[in-house]
Amino acid sequence: MSNDVLTVEGLRVRFRGQPVDLIDGVSLSIPAGRTLCVVGESGCGKSVTSLAVMGLLPRRSATVTAGRIRFRGQDLLGLPEAALADLRGNSMAMIFQEPMTSLNPVFTVGEQVAEAVRRHTGCSAAAARDRALEMFRRVRMPAAEKRLDEYPHQLSGGMRQRVMIAMALANRPALLIADEPTTALDVTIQAQILELMRELQRDIGTALLMITHDLGVVAEIADDVAVMYAGRVVESGPVAQIFNAPQHPYTLGLMGSMPAIAGRAGRLLTIPGAVPVPEAMPPGCRFASRCPFAIPACDAQVPPLVRGPDGHAHACLRAPLEDHVGQDRTGDDRTGHDRTGRGAA
Ligand SMILES: Nc1ncnc2c1ncn2[C@@H]1O[C@H](COP(=O)(O)OP(=O)(O)OP(=O)(O)O)[C@@H](O)[C@H]1O
Ligand SMILES: [Mg+2]
């Protein structure tokens, strides 16, 4: 019925020794050729979610306690490890934040890309090298042919990230997960890499799950956005909706951290406080203790993710927030909605 390449439904992940599921009912989907950006502050579970999709969670410490992960209709959680390994690097690829940890220092980068091609296609060594060279050219690796025979440490950070992209896309994956792929790079290189990923994605029709904490990257590349907070998706929808009509107080807070967007949305918002730790996870909305709009009900129940007809979904008992902002929207006292107002609201 759908052309979603990836569907995650009600995913829950628990780490050993922790009293609650850290990933607590995450649902996401990405159609072919589209880009979903997953945003949220450090520790909210972006990487854990993507590792779960790739089947790369540490087996000894992490357990998927509930949910489904479907890749082109196939249930990944039910797949044996060997079948998952066949998908990885082939129809499902991932780019990590720090390429040095994913590249092997003792092989040339050309060998590594060629090996990724050979492993999944069984083609000859010469054909795999040709393909590696072709990919190096496509990712605009400077002096592509010479670079094939160099080792990771001989390349700059931007070149290593190009190697990772070349390797990830060499087998034309249906799904690419990119976890902060440009964070370590300077701004010019970052823009080039994003443009490159977009171009290759257009050509191949890859569904892209892009993890970033950079709203500039989101504005640049996203079709859809999922905002995560403490292991839950608190808001999701088309990028324009998330930027122009955010519904969850946490999203409002995030927008406030990006001046260009905040300029459009109104005054800056700051979010005092910190993310709850697993040992003291509140039973209701995990954002409630930091939320200027919270009421007692927010502490008592987990707000369901409510999806509108336009695909915009939010998990906030207080939405739409306009009702509670009132004159403060134009005044200068928006953050005056603190916990002291809870009983009255
Ligand atoms: N192996 C592990 N054992 C216990 N807890 C873990 C483990 N790996 C991750 N966590 C916890 O899971 C939470 C989510 O981590 P995750 O790496 O997914 O965050 P993130 O959203 O990717 O953050 P960042 O933006 O910093 O990369 C964190 O609180 C982290 O401490
Ligand atoms: Mg991470």
In short:
This protein is an alpha/beta fold and 345 residues long.
Give the secondary structure arrangement, pairings included.
Blueprint: E1 4-15, E2 23-31, E3 35-39, H1 46-54, E4 62-71, E5 74-75, H2 81-87, E6 92-95, H3 99-102, H4 109-121, H5 125-138, H6 144-147, H7 157-169, E7 175-179, H8 187-204, E8 207-211, H9 215-221, E9 224-229, E10 232-238, H10 239-244, H11 249-256, H12 259-265, H13 296-300, E11 306-307, E12 313-314, H14 322-325
Helix pairs in contact: 4-5, 4-7, 5-7, 7-8
Bound molecules: adenosine-5'-triphosphate and magnesium ion.
Magnesium ion is lined by residues 46-47, 179.
Keywords: ATP-binding, Cell membrane, Membrane, Nucleotide-binding, Transport
InterPro entries: AAA+_ATPase, ABC_Ni/Peptide_Import, ABC_transporter-like_ATP-bd, ABC_transporter-like_CS, Oligopep_ABC_C, P-loop_NTPase
Membrane topology: Peripheral membrane protein
Average pLDDT reading: 86
Quickly name the level 1 CATH class of the largest domain: Alpha Beta
Order of neighbouring strands in the sheet with most strands: 6-7-8-3-9-10-12-11
How far the N terminus sits from the C terminus, by CA atoms, comes to 43 Å
Bound molecules: adenosine-5'-triphosphate, magnesium ion
The fourth-level CATH homologous superfamily of the largest domain is: P-loop containing nucleotide triphosphate hydrolases
Low-confidence stretches: 261-268, 326-345
Would you identify the CATH architecture of the largest domain?
A: 3-Layer(aba) Sandwich
**Radius of gyration based on Cα positions:** 21 Å
Count of distinct structural domains: 2
Compute the number of helices.
14
Main sheet properties: 8 strands, mixed
- Overall strand count: 12
- SS content category: alpha/beta
- The CATH topology annotation of the largest domain reads as Rossmann fold
Q: Can you tell me the overall shape?
A: globular
Q: Could you spell the SSE succession in H and E letters?
A: EEEHEEHEHHHHHEHEHEEHHHHEEH
What percent of residues are in strands? 15-25%
Keywords: ATP-binding, Cell membrane, Membrane, Nucleotide-binding, Transport
Family: Belongs to the ABC transporter superfamily.
Main location: membrane
Pfam family, one: ABC_tran
